[in-house]
Amino acid sequence: MNVQAYRLAQFVALLFYCFLGSAQADPMPSWNGVDSRNRIIEFVQAVTDPASADFVPEAERIAVFDNDGTLWSEQPYYFQLFFAIDRVRALVDANPQWKTQQPFKAAIEGDTQALMAAGEHGLLELLMATHAGTTTDEFAIIVEEWLATARHPRFDRRFNELVFQPMLELLDYLRDHGFKTWIVSGGGIELLRPWTFEAYGIPPEQVVGSSIKTRFEMRDGQPVLTRMPEINFIDDKEGKPVAINQHIGRRPIAAFGNSDGDLQMLQWTTAGKGRRLGVLIRHTDSEREWAYDRESGVGRLDRALDEATERGWVVVDMQQDWNRMYPFDTAK
Amino acid sequence: MNVQAYRLAQFVALLFYCFLGSAQADPMPSWNGVDSRNRIIEFVQAVTDPASADFVPEAERIAVFDNDGTLWSEQPYYFQLFFAIDRVRALVDANPQWKTQQPFKAAIEGDTQALMAAGEHGLLELLMATHAGTTTDEFAIIVEEWLATARHPRFDRRFNELVFQPMLELLDYLRDHGFKTWIVSGGGIELLRPWTFEAYGIPPEQVVGSSIKTRFEMRDGQPVLTRMPEINFIDDKEGKPVAINQHIGRRPIAAFGNSDGDLQMLQWTTAGKGRRLGVLIRHTDSEREWAYDRESGVGRLDRALDEATERGWVVVDMQQDWNRMYPFDTAK
């Protein structure tokens, strides 16, 4: 098809879009009609209205989302750690020395206190032992199988059911307005990619995360990528703008996070020229989810909360602003 | 707009597409009606026809392209080296010691023989000195300014005019059939991103390349990403499948290269399940471009050419298969 024909088809699609769009219902029904929701919508209207001084061409409408605590829950500890513990248990027969060796012993026994006492180094050791050693294709299958069977202890739900309904609506709303939505997570990139499209509508090529190194090898004449027990990149704090630049190559115009690990991503995004949006999701609902901020070990929100006021970022109060938490909840 | 309305709009667009598409002219007029062209078209038809056993859903239609020698020329040496030499000359006043120090002296004097004699280490030193030390925003401007003024010695054209017209048509043809087109280049990622959309229709987020490390810093309260004189990733040979996995997270179904640096990318792509396409562009036209393969220092094509036969990859003979080389050429 030539360019003219394509443009005509696009134009016709646009006509239908405008006509049908006008009859649409509230695009974000799980959000109460409060300040945070209104500021998000106002931002989107400003950057998508061609008559607005804040208009941004569609190609530059990049929105980045943290995952843990922003798109899904992260308590009592990051869901990736549940995965690692389950992997230790699945692999212990092949590694019997783990039964007496920390932090593996703690993982096998479900002793989370001893696990946390192992510190960053111990956790890293756990991640390496459970995330490396397979090919990339094999690992994707392991993740899919785990996600289909593992259950969160509090809700007895699959982990990918614990995604925030209001954020799903927000993702759809942004994409309906020409945004490209990306995940920029401290979690492992290969632990996310097998399921983010189904859960969030975000395809693998728009997922950025922490990673271990991989190596290209020939096995029986077939090329494979082997996962190595070596850190490649930690996509957290100062790493997030670095990874955004590496993967996206454009500065986002909107960033959504929930913890100090997202501080630099929000700084980087909102310091760009023109209108920008920074949003922090604040965990304030111990009844439907969890309440934590400045003192939390997981998902600490302290410095970023202070900067939110200075820099005019939107702070979403989950308890007040959301009438529904998870897709399986009914609206309150 | 809700999902139903969006689907309806898509359907109407599709109707127009089909109707108008049937009246379209040859989508790749710069390709002669030879075997290589026909095999490419046959592949695209097979993977896009819903009735075909080889059908691939649109989201999985990933096509990757090497850049140097595949989408634009790479002789008498990689265009990035022209950039580095020009940068040395622009920076010599601030670095007077370069006047007597190799490989900088050779760059200043245009002594390419001495430059090549500096070997890989010397060239790396040259790249570091000329590619690091600025912020990412500053570097993008430097690249844009260079590209707007620098000229290729043989053609007296801007370097981004030396792109292959048949490949531009191929990129359009693939995108018209729902492919997402990516660059996977051994060249510097930040040297590509400022201009690939205009030249190839490939946006920055679909460009993968070699890179140096960047560091997030605050300068006068403003966040910047500083380019460090340290290799981050070499996107060549075994690195290409690794980078494809890191950036795209899916295995491509089609890969286009021209040298042994693309061998592993083609192996990785074509070893996937289902129908796959591997294409090598062979430089056979010393009159309109250059002729080189097994013995060339730049863009050597040797092992990959042998494997092309074994693995059924398409080999494009530029001299025979293309009736036009660059956009400024008239068809022959």
Which two chains form the greatest contact, residue counts included?
A-B, 53 and 52 residues
Distance between the termini of chain A: 50 Å
Radius of gyration of chain A: 21 Å
Output the strand order for the largest sheet of chain A.
Answer: 4-3-2-1-5-6-7
What is the helix content of chain A? 40-55%
Q: What are the segments of chain A in which pLDDT stays under 50 over at least 5 consecutive residues?
A: none
Separate helix tally of chain A: 14
Largest sheet of chain A: 7 strands, mixed
Q: Percent of residues of chain A in beta strands?
A: 15-25%
Average pLDDT of chain A works out at: 93
Order of helices and strands of chain A: HHEHHHHHHEHHEEHEHEHEH
Shape of chain A: globular
Structural class of chain A: alpha/beta
What's the count of strands of chain A?
A: 7
